[in-house]
Write the structure tokens for this entry.
Amino acid sequence: MAHIPSHLLLTPDEMARADRMSAESGIPSFDLMQRAGYAVAATALSLFPAALRFAVLCGPGNNGGDGYVAARQLAESGADITVYALGDPDDLKGDAGRAYQLWGGLVAPLCEFEPRPGDVVIDALFGAGLSRTLPDDVTALISSVERAGVPVLAVDLPSGIDGRSGRPLGAAFKADCTVTFMARKPGHLLLPGKSLCGDIKVADIGIPRRIMEAVRGRLSENGPQIWSANLPLVGADSHKYRRGHLVIFSGEASKTGAARLSAIAGLKTGAGLVTVASPENAMVANAAQLTAVMLRKVDSEAELSDWLENAKLSAFVLGPGFGIGSHARDFVLALKDRPLVLDADGITSFRDDPAILFDAFADGETHLVLTPHEGEFGRLFPDIAADETLSKPEKALKAARRAHAAIVYKGADTVIASPDGRVAINTNGPPWLATAGSGDVLAGMIGAFLAQGLPTFEAAAAGVYLHGQAAGLAGPYMTAEDLAGLAGQAMADITARF
């Protein structure tokens, strides 16, 4: 797999196109199927050496063909094999039919399968291209396997998961391991599919890289390959003013902590200067807690406008603890020509008329980053959120284009999207990121990258990834303060590699 980029993702349609192009280029499609089946068999023998029986469940298409190849290889290795088929295998055509004929052994109807102790189930019923609800008999079989607690090795994707969206189509196997081919699919990384795949192994079955590159879209796994070339490196000629001035807006006296978390995270992530813009009634509370972060009183839109005219300010974060309402809307609209991360209360302030926000930032290069969680996304984009035909990446992309903004659609499977069509799925965020204040830290990190001159998509993707790295350093019992404090270490670890 060394010749295929590890971050590559292909949709099921793109993978099908790669298969077709391989055949058109002279690579026999059955050769690909054989290599896929061999990879499944090798993985089964490696992971489950003590299996008493491999129960290979074969479907009515090419995924079933992979299963027949795997069954033949396992039998030749001396393993105890029983093959069960969904439908009449004599009806199989093409490569799958050929794989069935070469198997040559007994095949029982799927309805006869009963899991027993010592079994390992090889799920070759349906692959990543499944787009319809599973038949009732397969749903019942999945339940019986789950009750029996026997291990499952999935071929391509656990049957029942939509490879495009990661959503179960009725029911789905929960696999201990999934073997996929050439590249992962979105369903391997998006929830709940991600939690049902177990360990994911990507097998190179011989499709040339030129074909993989030709069919790939603009979806990838988030990682340094997307944004590392844009990272500002600290050198001998570095100066705080060259690294940008980030402004974080604070809420009232009783709600100042969120802004300070954002500010510390921004400072740790490399912004040369960070100022908390505070209402007068919160100045004392903020001053008592800030040292390296500066403080300025900004109560009104007039005071903000005066500051914008007379100071060199690079980027802004508004939302954490700020408060919901017209005051937030006025400040955001005053910043319509500046790089801005809009989070939390800032997002919710536009729920009644999101078009006001979108229209304000519609001109010029994209300079707005929106960081909604599920509920906030639904407030800004109710029709997109409600469209169950769309995957999470597709929803994020539609939202990015409507808002003329980079979208950070947060969650355990955070998706970052740009109006230009680029979409990245983040995978390094540990579950303990779901803690109070975590989003405030993320907003500050993204703001720091904007202040240092990164474009919005790269700033958002880098912020999300390094946020996950910092959480990994902090460990399961972290607080948001721990997370903010380790943002700098996460940044140093990454920059040391480039």
